[in-house]
Amino acid sequence: MRLGLILSEVGQGFRRNLSMVVSVILVTFISLTFFGAAVLLQLQIGQMKGYWYDRAEVTVYMCTDIVKACDGADATQEQIDAVQAQLDSPTLADFVETVNFESTEEAFARFQEEFAGSSLAELATIDSFGPDFQVKLYDPNQSDVIIDSITGMPGVDEVRDQRALLQPIFDVMNAASYTAVGIAGLMLVTAVLLISTTIRLSAFSRRRELAIMRLVGASNRFIETPFILEGVLASLIGSVLASGAVVAIVHFFVTGYLSENFTNYSFIGIQDALLVAPILVGVGALLAALSASVAIRRYLKA
């Protein structure tokens, strides 16, 4: 009987403040969608870092006649052999997993294959390329050992850790993730304020009923419960919609488009979205319960 009365009060609150309830649902939906997207983006960044950093190589670029630092001279065969011997030496044996030498012709052919159909491939000439060594390490974090060992050897133009090329990409993705978190935070604050306002309006519209309930001895908890449930239910609807949106984004955009068109990359999947969905529902319900509880208690004390 008491449960039926509480649910009846919740239904009345929804009907009397329908526009505010819809606003709470929409704001919660948008804010938690941004929050979920930020979480998924962080998961994607972590996955991509693990995937690419494990495959990152140290590239040793040998001199060509167009490089000023090399005094306009190509690396000689003796210099190339010296670098090869250093990479194969016992000193570096514990760090180097494989070494692949790429001639000028091979480097040019690979570039043409990778950028086939683009203006870069049409403008590139073989004179722009030189021989290089692609060094795969057991532990990519120890690339400094190779860089220090090879840098400065005769015929060496540059020794580059490929992870340095990937870092700007991850920085941009991190910035996008932090931006989404910031927007989500602002929207969540808006949702909390809307929930509080909705609860206060609902309580004000039923002030006579509340006064009667107090006169007949109803406890504060019994009076507060319907209002808290109003906020939680409205927020839960928005949270469920946000969870569905996050799952749909991963299903249709990430696995349905990105994974099919960029097969050389590692992407998050539906299982990651399904892990994030309960978090969104929990965050939405918790924020709604806290804000509604504080709002109705302040109103009853006023």
Q: How does this structure look, described?
A:
Forms a membrane-associated complex with FtsE. The chain folds into 2 domains: about 5-50 and about 165-300, no CATH class; about 55-165, Alpha-Beta Plaits, CATH 3.30.70.3040. It is built from 10 helices and 4 strands, in the order ααβαβααβαβαααα. α2 packs across α9 (about 220-260) and α7 (about 165-205) packs antiparallel against α9 (about 220-260). The protein is about 70% helix and about 10% strand. With about 300 residues, the chain is of the alpha+beta class. It is elongated, with a radius of gyration of 31 Å. It starts with a helix and ends with a helix.
Distance between the termini: 29 Å
Low-confidence stretches: none
Structural class determined from secondary elements: alpha+beta
Main pleated sheet: 4 strands, antiparallel
User: How many structural domains are formed by the residues?
Assistant: 2
Please trace the helix and strand order, writing H or E for each element: HHEHEHHEHEHHHH
Rg, nearest Å: 31 Å
Q: What does the overall shape look like? A: elongated
Percent helix, as a range, is over 70%
Protein name: Cell division protein FtsX
Keywords: Cell cycle, Cell division, Cell membrane, Membrane, Transmembrane, Transmembrane helix
Subcellular location: Cell membrane
Membrane topology: Multi-pass membrane protein
